Amino acid sequence: MIKYFLLWFPMLFLAILNGTARDLWYVNYLGELAARQLSTLTLLLLFTLYFLVLFKYSLTVSNSEALFIGVFWVILTLVFEFGFGLYRGNSWAVLVQEYNIAKGKLWILIPIWVSIGPYCINRLLNN
To answer: How far apart are CA 85 and CA 88, in angstroms?
Structure first.
C-alpha cells in the first residue's frame, strides 16, 4: 500500500507541471475553457504514458490489483483536489463546476481514467 501511495506522487507532479504549462503559456492563446480542455487531454496523455512505463517496467500485478491501484489513486486524487481547492478558499460549487461536461468541462475524464487506467494498461500489457 505504501508503494502505491508513493507511486501516486509522480502523477501529482505531472498534473502540477501540466497546469503550470496551461497557465503560463497557452491560456493566453486559447482562452480559459479551451486551455482547460487541452490541459485535460494532455494530462490524460501524460498519465497514460506514466501508466505504460510503470506497468511495463516496474509493477508486476494482477488485473484485480491494478484495479485496486486505480481506485486507490482516484481516492487520493479527489481528496487532494477537493482538499487543496477548499484550502485555497474555493467553494464546493466552484470545485464541482470543473466536472460539468454540459458546460464543456472535461475534467471528469481525469478521475475516470485514473480509476480505470491502471487496469486497462495492465491488461493491455499482460494479455
So the answer is: 5
- Where are the chain's structural domains? 2-126
Q: How far apart are CA 85 and CA 21, in angstroms?
A: 19
pLDDT (tens digit per residue) in 51-61: 999 999 988 89
In angstroms, the CA 88 to CA 106 distance is 22
The whole-model pTM stands at: 0.94
